[in-house]
Amino acid sequence: MTLTELMHAQDRRGCVGDGLFYRSGPFIIALRTRLADTLDLLEQFYGPCWASRDPAVAHFQVEVNSASGLRRWWRTQAVFALDGLHPFEPFPREHAFPLLEWGLNWSIATRAHLYLMLHAGALERNGQALLLPAMPGAGKSTLSAALAYRGWRLLADEFGLIRPADGAIVPLPRAIPLKNRSIPVIREFLPDAFLGPVFPKTRKGDVAHLRPPLPSLERQTEPAQPRWITFPRFVPGLRRPQLKRLEKSLGFTRLAQNAFNYRLLGEDGFTTLVRLVRECACFSLEYGDLDAAIALIAEITADAPG
Amino acid sequence: MKGTTPGGDRYLSPADTRVVATWGAESSVYCRRTGDTHLLSILPAELLAMLPPEPTDLETITTRMARSCAQPVTPEWTARIRSMLDELVRLELVDRLPE
Amino acid sequence: MHPAKLHPLLRGAREPSAVVHFSADDWNRCLRAARTERVLARLGYRIADAGALGRCPAAARDQLIAARAYPGFLQCRIAHEVSQVRRALPAADGDLILLKGAAYHCAGLPLTRGRQLRDLDILVPRTRIDAFERDLLAAGWESQPLDEYDQRYYRDWMHEIPPLRHPQRGVEVDLHHRLLPLTSRLRPDPDLLWESALPVAGMPGVRVLSPVDMLLHTATHLFHDGAIRGGLNDLWDIDELLRHFAAQPAFWETLPERAARLDLGRPLYYGLLFSRALLGTPIPAAVLTEVGRRFAPARPVNALMHTLVTRALPPQEGRSALTGLANWLLYVRSHWLRMPPHLLLPHLIRKSLRRLGGLDQHSGRRVDKRDSLRT
After folding, report:
1. How close A269 gets to chain B, by Cα (Å)?
2. Chain C residue with Cα closest to B32
3. C83 touches B at CB < 8 Å
């Protein structure tokens, strides 16, 4: 059953009790919430994903609800819990959905050590994948979002999950949080894509979520083989994008610094990363214009990498 | 004072303490002892690969390195190899046994 | 306690192949508790050893395997710290004995797998402890600035010196000169430990406690030196040490007498009792009888401890008033065992004053550590 079917088949207040189980990429999430607006948004963003009311073994047991205690009487707040513990300070009540998304990302980053986790966007075409590793603010989400609506399947906008056993990228397509200036840029670039409400003044500024294209949610359990690694950097006003071939030694070093858990994985992390870099062509890309960047990426990914 | 005369100290590098990936001129080295990863340029990488697992004195190492790099053994060359070895010792990729 | 009523985590630990029959709800409770108790990876190894990992649901298997990474990372870090400590100490300082996790790891005991190892605990002769400290300080370790009360607390009443840390690596190194605080009610003689300590292969100058002493120390650490609550990981150590050493000749025969000699009979009794009750550890009936006869407390105390510990040690879901009471009583007991009453009261008062005043806000990690030492 999909999340949409489940929400329409049942009284959604039923989710209060034992919770709701749904799939995001390789993970099963057990969610408890009494917040109707959060459930609505969840359905809008993850509608085609598998979901169930019957208990399933979950990777993450999370809860997002309004804060209990005295404070709720003068300022309502939302709290996130993982395994019954509250790793963060409460958010304003109206930011419950971004809190859930952020809390889940944090949970994944701190626990999903079955994978080498790169801080990267990832897209697939004809079974071959492009990784866009970058630090926050480098325009990785914006570029991933744009490519996802220009012929590429979105695998992930935040987590490049590399499976050590075969080097494949395991998809984790999630609502793409666009920040501040990216919101109008994407609104103009993708006028038909579904963009959720703007949450003003979160910790990261204004945030609005872009829904991944439906096929990428429908195919979220299909991995892809990485072939290209491009380190993007957004440079405002840059007309002609600059693409440079990157030495593999440099690509390796930058990825080791970029990964969430490279050090923690020890030798497995090293071996997995070496394989990834051997199998991929590495580039750096500076861009100021999405169309030009997409065209350039199409050029370098047209042929098999050298 | 230990190791003041060249050839006094001996060096060794047990192969099972590291994993190496070579990228053209440079190599990434994972050190199992520390969990650190290092990027080595061609000369230290060659030195590391050449070091035998049994203790070897500086003179032997210098001579062998000079041969494989087609270099004459000069005092500068010896000093260079020595400082490279010191750096590899600091990274714990190489052990130094005092005389 | 009837096994069917046990928490699924305990059921999985007792009979790892039975997890293949777990419901999704059992699994979710089990995985969550195993994380909280820091035994998720250990449970995974146990299930794998029983040949059942492949028959677990994928989401459970993912987590059991992913949980191995962090303990592996911590172990590499501690093994490296041990090598740095050895390098920093001149042979003239004499030998050192690794304790607890570092000992299990360096001695290559199977129970090290999946075990989270945070600090490095080392036993050194009391006469040498100042020299060890000086050498480590000279080699770059740093002692954290402590206020006068804390300095006195460590130097006068504890069995160790204030923790040392190398700024580049951050591992906490605790040098002990005995197993229990000087003020403690039990007085195991460190000389006896040194006499039977065993060398570690490939690490000259490094030793570990003999199997019997290692087990006694682990039991003492949980049942005499701590608040018991949250100690499932320690009980797991006891269980695995017993299962592992059971195969060694004379292990069971020498255990009770050695416990008497070291003045650690009571912790041994609790260790055997609760490891068997909660984790199903196989223990020869004759040993249980003998240890019970020689070291069990008077019947009412025994019954009370049984009630308290079987509430405080299993995973705690939600909050019940009775479990809260059990936790509190065991907490008070742990202080009672460590300090004479005239010291105990001022210390507990000072501790609650600190909590109230937030004096330790600036050094969060240290507070954690002190709490784990004291409680």
Report:
1. 10
2. C76
3. yes
Query: Mutate which of A21, A52, A57, A108 to test chain C, going by most C C-beta atoms within 10 A?
Result: A57
b vs e for C152-187, b when ≥16 Cβ sit within 10 Å of the residue's Cβ?
ebbeebbbbbbbbbbeeeebbbbbbbbbbbeebebe
Q: Which helix (H) or strand (E) holds C303?
A: helix C299-312
SS3 assignment, position A41? helix
- Let me know if A299 is exposed, middle or buried by CB neighbors in 10 A (0-12, 13-18, 19+): exposed
Sign of CA dihedral C28, C33, C36, C42: negative
**Domain layout of chain C by residue ranges:** 1-67, 71-209, 211-339
Q: Would you call A271 and B24 a contact, using CB atoms and an 8 Å cutoff? A: no
Q: Do A59 and C65 touch (CB under 8 A)?
A: no
CB C75 within 8 A of CB C108: no
Question: Does the beta carbon of A266 lie under 8 angstroms from any beta carbon of chain C?
Answer: yes
**Cβ contact, residue pair C73, A264, below 8 Å:** yes
CB A7 within 8 Å of CB A50: no
- Strands of chain A (E only): list them: 20-24, 27-32, 51-52, 60-66, 77-82, 91-92, 116-125, 128-133, 153-156, 159-162, 169-170, 176-179, 199-202, 205-210, 225-234, 242-245, 281-287
- Of the partner residues A56, A58, A265, the one whose CB lies closest to the CB of residue C69: A265
Mutation site, B2, B31, B34, interface C, largest C CB count within 10 A: B34
Alpha helices in chain A (DSSP H): 3-9, 36-46, 96-111, 140-148, 182-189, 214-218, 248-258, 267-279, 290-300
Q: Does C77 touch chain B (CB under 8 A)?
A: yes
ipTM exceeds 0.90: yes
| pTM (predicted TM-score) | 0.90
Look-up of token digits 């742990």: C334
**For A56, what's the count of Cα atoms within 13 Å in the CB-facing half-sphere?**
18
Which of B:38-97 have CB within 8 Å of C?
none
Q: Between chains, do A270 and B39 touch, taking CB under 8 Å as contact?
A: no
Q: What topology does CATH give the domain C71-209?
A: Beta Polymerase; domain 2 (3.30.460)
Closest residue of B to A274, CA-based?
B21
Nearest by CB: A248 against B19, B23, B37: B23
Q: Report how far residue C289's alpha carbon sits from residue C268's, in angstroms, rounded to the nearest whole number.
A: 13
Tens-of-pLDDT digits for all 375 residues of chain C?
566 689 999 999 999 999 999 999 999 999 999 999 999 999 999 999 999 999 999 999 999 999 999 999 999 999 999 999 998 988 777 799 999 999 999 999 999 999 999 899 999 998 899 899 999 999 999 997 777 777 776 666 666 788 999 999 999 999 999 888 777 788 889 999 999 999 999 898 999 999 999 999 999 999 987 778 889 999 999 999 999 999 998 999 999 999 999 999 999 999 999 999 999 999 999 999 999 999 999 998 899 889 888 888 989 887 677 777 777 777 777 766 665 555 555 555 555 555 544 333 333 333 333 333 222
What is the rounded distance in angstroms from the CA atom of residue A225 to the CA atom of residue A113?
19
Residues of C engaging A, defined by a Cβ cutoff of 8 Å:
23-25, 27-28, 31-32, 35-36, 57-60, 62-63, 65-70, 72-73, 76
The answer to whether A271 contacts B23, with C-beta atoms less than 8 Å apart, is: no
Three-state SS string over chain B comes to: CCCCCCCCCEEECCHHHEEEEEECCEEEEEECCCCCEEEECHHHHHHHHHCCCCCEEHHHHHHHHHHHHCCCCCHHHHHHHHHHHHHHHHCCCCEEECC
**CATH class held by domain B15-97:** mainly alpha
Residues of A in contact with B25 (CB under 8 A): 249
Report the chain C residue with the minimal C-alpha distance to residue B90: C84
